[in-house]
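Build the 3D complex.
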Amino acid sequence: MSAESHPAPARPGAAALSPLRDFLQRLRRETYRAGPHVPLPASPTHLLREVAPAENLVSRFQTSAAMVGCRVHRVRRDEWLATVRGILRERSARTVLVEPHAETALTAERAAQLSEALEAEGVATSAQCVDESLFAADASVTGVISALAETGTLVCVSSAASARGASLIPPVHIALVSSSQLVADLFDFFERLGAWAELPANVNLITGPSKTADIEGVLVTGVHGPGEVHIVLTAD
Amino acid sequence: MNPTSGLRARLAEAHRDQRVVDAVHLATWRKVEARADAMAGLRHYAALRDRAAQIRQHTLDHLPQYLEQFVERATALGATVHFAANADAACATVCDIAVSRGLKLAVKSKSMTTEEVHLNDALLAAGVRVVETDLGEFIVQIDRDRPSHIITPIIHKDRRQVARAMARELGCPYTEDPAEMTRIARQHLRDIFRRCDLGITGANFAVAETGTLCLVTNEGNGRMTVTRPRVHVALVGIEKIIPRLIDLPVILKLLARSSTGQPLGAYTTLITGPRREGDVDGPEELHIVLLDNGRSRILSGPFREVLRCVRCGACLNACPVYRNVGGHAYNSVYPGPIGSVLSPLLYGRPAEELPRASSLCGLCYQVCPVKIDIPRLLVQLRTATRARQPRGKRLLMRAWAWAMDRPWLYRLAQRLMRRLLPDDGTGWINRDNHLFRRPLRAWTAQRDLLRPPPQSFRELWKGGLGDER
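Done.
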């Protein structure tokens, strides 16, 4: 593996840190001579939240996601496969990345089901995220670890099973979301994230397709990330 | 040397090209409207803003402790944390990382700190090719221009200028269609992303509790930059710290709404250490370079509040001065109202006239998501450099202040001025008067001649204005 051919220094940062230590000491001396540390009071999140936990999260999510430019397909549980295939067929996808992840709605079983169905139609599928297949893929199908009703946001994380590039590099991203994965507010999501024993190296909150308005303020989607984000939302 | 001459010349330059003026006007106006709409849809805007300001100020008031916590956490996760006291040290650190590992092709996600230290020039000199990947910054780079807005770098360009630059530099067919130009840039940069070995970013926030960097982007270039290369270097100002993960949503709810009117940026990326063992992709090394470059000095002085800034750009869009002169007139990496405070504090004398280029209308404070009292800071900065103002102006101002303190004198002066400057402009003092050509020219060249109305407000009130209700 290439990680071994470029080892990090034996004690990362040990030498680099001493100027920082000096600096912090100086900062403490010069700026903060007096006063003990007063902790920041907790956020009164119940007074700041946008979406009440009791709200209808499915319809709220549907509205928010559509507003930021996602295409939401709200379907019955047994319709997900046909819906995904339909989207891919409409876009004449020839190569598709199907990335299963146990903690998402795209389980290994479902992924196998999808891949089999696609292969039968002559669509090449890959589950492994080797570089060339990522850049060559016409679309990717992934699960998410969470979705936010407030903003229509999808949350994808890096892991041994899921690549940072999967929801980023192919021009069309199809995300499978089950309604049990919806959280009401950004506050709820960050509270849950804070409870994780260890944060993944990379957590992405995806809110709509990749976009820019750099040239004369004209909105263009699909700059570096996918220009189309489809959400297949099932109830369970 | 007249310190104002640079600013004057730049202001004149700013108005030479009407197309640029129109482009900036239209684009900023759109953003002002988008922001207002977004905030109107936010349930607890005022409370969120109070809380965001409190979080940022608290962090600054206890910065050494939070910095230490951040460094400890990030290091424990396998990141290498460096410290750069100034721009040269920052450049040297990044160049050293690149050169010692034989990295040749760097991709950059939009970052104000790297602009501030002029990192691109240093890397080029060290033999590393740097490619800007934010569409706006990419166009700035190929056109050898300078950014003029902290969020929308090419706000001063119209589509024809962009089209010409792209056709000339990339050899692509000429097109003025923004969608097509974006597609061409995507193709061009995809090839770079396949081959690059170094990724350079800034950070919107750094979470002390978890050692996490937070990056907010819209295009996805930021995500590409922290996904593809095997080394990721983040240049982070020491003021970017946030205490805890749960403090992030408060500010995230305001940040994109302030910038562009979106509820969230398209991509909010949380980076906690380099790629984990077994991860499918991602950088093997993560270097975090904490940048001081004058920040600790600001922190220790009376302007600490300015470091709350989250670089949303709302004050630029709202500012009537920025809207009229554009970003280049400020001659600083940080233009607009926030730049008029930051630049003199960071660069000293060369930027000390900027606080005077403001009408103090207060819109910047009104739209600031972290409640930085920019108008008050501008006045404080003016006061700090009062001694270096021209002598005549100082005397006039002192006389003015003296008269304002004495109501009888003020009333007398009012009556006198009405004689000298009557409504029709035919009085003893008028624009053709030699008084206006010589000693007062510096003032009147850029300001309309005062035309006092026949009756003052006081007189109208005395005459029964208040009774008409």
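The two ends of chain B are 56 Å apart (CA to CA).
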